[in-house]
Amino acid sequence: MDRAKELMKKNTMIIALIVVTLFFAIQTGGTLLVPQNVTNLISQNGYVVVLAVGMLMCILTGGNIDLSVGSVVALIGALAGTLIVNKGMNMWAAIIICLAVGILIGAVQGFWIAYLRIPAFIVTLAGMLLWRGVALMILGGLTVSPFPNSYLNLFNSFIPDIFGGSVNVLSIVLGIVVSVIYIAIQLISRAKNIKKGYATESGIAALTKIIIITIVIMALAFSLSNHKGIPTILILLSIIVVIYGYFTTKTVPGRYLYAMGGNEKASKLSGINTNKVLFLAYVNMAFLSAVAALICVARFNSAAPTAGTNYEMDAIGACYIGGASAYGGVGSVGGVVIGAIFMGVINNGMSIMGIDNNLQKVIKGVVLLAAVTFDVLSKKKSRA
User: Is the domain defined by 2-157+231-379 classed in CATH 1.10.3470?
Assistant: First the structure.
């Protein structure tokens, strides 16, 4: 019984994701899990994963959020459209400029938040209005399109199958490789923790988690193999997730985020430059917002002044649903990815079922409230 409770506690969101996916798969007559729709799910929610990873860095510092990310996406998208479509600038030069402007925006907002200690809510709320206004000025209220195919192929194409045939064998091979690497990393990490005397989950819980995630990886690989193969956006998302997953768990600056979220005063007294940590969190958030903007304009093949509307809510929702604490100091990149997929499955499933958009917003609001409530009640219980 105790092992079952531990198993449920450690894998709550994974189990919830599986249940929700099966529910919508049944309700949509299997349409949700059709290979083409799985690919659509990845492309439609790529920006959520990117923004949610950045938002996690902000939340970890003490429950801070960034309300300006949607407007930054609109601004960078407008800049990309102007440079690439209207000015005919070299694609790579335009991308570098867009990313640099994103970093500059993050530095401006980070300075006010970290060094002047203006509440992040106020600064990013001002940024939400400011950057949206700049985007409207750049585009003159008009939509810019189409983008050249060379740019679109960066984010909307598929990795060619070197094996050939009606089924994309490369997807299956890469699925097997990723599964083997994941299992090896988990086993090696567990062995090291046990050797060092660290607290670890039970063998059954660890094994169950490995089996579930391996099955999910292989199911995704087989699904993609029956459509067009591996989308390039999935490669980009995987790189971002791996880099930030390693950064938050295996590097000293990454652990500073958790320390600051746990107790900022204690972190400062122990020698951590908390101002710098907070500043870099917001610089990173704006940088990833620029990356998300480049993804979005390629997906829509246009740059519009209304782009990015409510994107900040999708990112925040994915973080809290994925297990990030509203108080800061708790959360993981893996959990955020699960939260983003969870949101994507709900959105896509309800759309296929033809549920009214207004009702969809109600349901997503209830899910977000439930996730935060669960976090708050858990914290109170642990303190008691």
Answer: yes
